[in-house]
Design brief:
Elements: E1 2-5, H1 9-25, H2 34-43, E2 46-49, E3 56-61, H3 69-81, H4 85-100, E4 102-104
Antiparallel strand pairs: 1-2, 2-3, 3-4
Helix pairs in contact: 2-4, 3-4
Pfam families: DUF6693
Keywords: Membrane, Transmembrane, Transmembrane helix
Transmembrane segments: 12-34, 72-95
Length: 105
């Protein structure tokens, strides 16, 4: 099996522009929601291709950005207490969570 990502430059630019504007408007608070959106954005545009049959099956990420507000608040506190160092760990934890809550259609 192979993994195939279908990300176009225009999709990426649009996604980044939206989050840049949100980050400026919210004075950086949107950056705690961004990793969830980014993980979901990439996973939902990825598919798994079976080498033997050539069948392509789409991956679907079942996370919702706003359903994880408690998790986000916890990591906000950790990030503030560690002077930003906690955010690096937060990004990895979000990807772990996103991949564990993904499925193949």
């Amino acid at each position: 099996m192979n993994i195939k990502a279908n990300l176009s430059i225009l999709d990426i630019i649009g996604h980044l522009l939206i989050w840049l504007v949100l980050t400026v408007i919210t004075l950086g608070i949107a950056l705690f929601f961004f990793p969830y959106s980014f993980a979901r954005f990439v996973i939902n545009r990825t598919s798994v291709v079976d080498n033997t049959t050539g069948v392509e099956r789409k991956m679907v990420c079942d996370i919702n950005i706003f359903s994880n507000v408690g998790h986000i608040l916890l990591w906000m506190i950790i990030t503030i207490l560690t002077l930003g160092l906690g955010y690096l760990f937060y990004v990895y934890r979000v990807w772990n969570y996103a991949l564990n809550n993904s499925r193949i259609q």
